[in-house]
Amino acid sequence: MSNIDAAELQYEEKIVWLEDIAPLYFVRESMSWQTYGVGKRGPIKLRAPRKGGMVTRLVGYATISNNRYVGSFPRRIFWVKGDDEAPVGGARGYGMPCEAVDPRSVAPGVPGTRPPERRSSEASKR
Hints:
With 126 residues, the protein is mostly beta strands. It has one helix at 120-125; strands spanning 12-17, 27-35, 56-64, 72-81, 100-101. It has one helix and five strands, in the order βββββα. Strands 1-3-4-2-5 form a five-stranded antiparallel β-sheet, with no helix packed on it. The chain starts with 11 loop residues before the first strand and ends with a helix.
C-alpha cells in the first residue's frame, strides 16, 4: 500500500505518463510541492540530485484541478532511480524501496498499490 493518504489526491484530474510503463515493475510514488508558476496541469521537473546522489528520471505526474489551490500545491509524481530497473540480486542487491508502487495500479485520486516482491528467478524472466 502507498504511503500517500487518499485525501491528498482528491483534486487530481488525470495521470500523465511521460514514457511507456509496461517494462517498469515499479515506480516510486511521492508528493511534490509545486509553486503556482509551474502550473497545475503542465509538465514538471525533478530537482537535480545533490553531488554524489543517484540520477532520477521522472516517468509521470498527476494534473490538479485548477480551482483547488492558490500559491503552492501538492502534486503526485512518479519516478525511478538509476538502479530501480536492475534485476534482483544485480546492481540493486536489495528489495523495492518503501515508496514503490505498481504503475498499472495508479489512477487519479487513488494511491498506487505495492507490487509483490520479486525473487531472483522471477527477475531473470523479465
